[in-house]
Amino acid sequence: MELLRMLDEAGVMASGHFSDKDTHLSWVLTDDGTLAISGKGNIADVLTDFDCRVDDTDYFGACHVFYYPEVCCYPWFAYHDLIKVVVFGEGIECLGVETFMRYWNIEKIILPDSLKFIGDWAFYGCTRLMEVIIPANVTMIARAFYDCCNLKKVTCLMERPIPIKEDEFYGIAKDAVLYVPESSVDAYRQDDCWNKFYIEVI
């Protein structure tokens, strides 16, 4: 209902549909910079699922849609510099590799309870993103928020800390705080990677 209210209050800049294999998505971009994506399935990897070229100068030795936008078949990429808020609807289970990499102006993302996987560099370099709430059903984060330098508040709704590597939140704000359920505080504080955060109760 909140999403419908947001869309009603703002004019529509662009909209459309996207289908690939078992994924069927609809999307709307409003005049205020809100991108709402609804449907079921996975938002596939930009890096591996599409035919893209390798940039040999890249530090990670990977190809990036930011450098070669013609390889990205997601229609909303044409408006990436206008997007400020991304709302993912229920039914979306996976955000693939680099799907929103270097969308410079994203300030807020709303992830669905259905989400299970957030791929490498999904929000890499989203330098205006300040807060994220990770839903309870997520089982893998990878390096999704790498170099989100203003990310200061990370809320994990998972009761148990999922396995992560030490660099998975590399480059976020140095004073970032991790918020977890009260019953999970000890588990997160005892985890060798999650305990790098200052941990508070939700």
Overview of the molecule:
- This protein has one domain (2-201): Alpha-Beta Horseshoe (Leucine-rich repeat, LRR (right-handed beta-alpha superhelix)), CATH 3.80.10.
- Helix content is 9%, strand content 28%.
- Strands 1, 2, 3, 4, 5, 6 and 7 form a seven-stranded mixed sheet that branches.
- It is globular, with a radius of gyration of 17 Å.
- The chain has helices spanning 2-9, 46-49, 185-190, and strands at 12-20, 23-30, 34-43, 85-88, 92-95, 108-110, 117-118, 131-134, 153-156, 177-180, 198-201.
- A hairpin with a 2-residue loop joins strand 1 and strand 2.
- It contains three helices and eleven strands.
- With 202 residues, it is mostly beta strands.
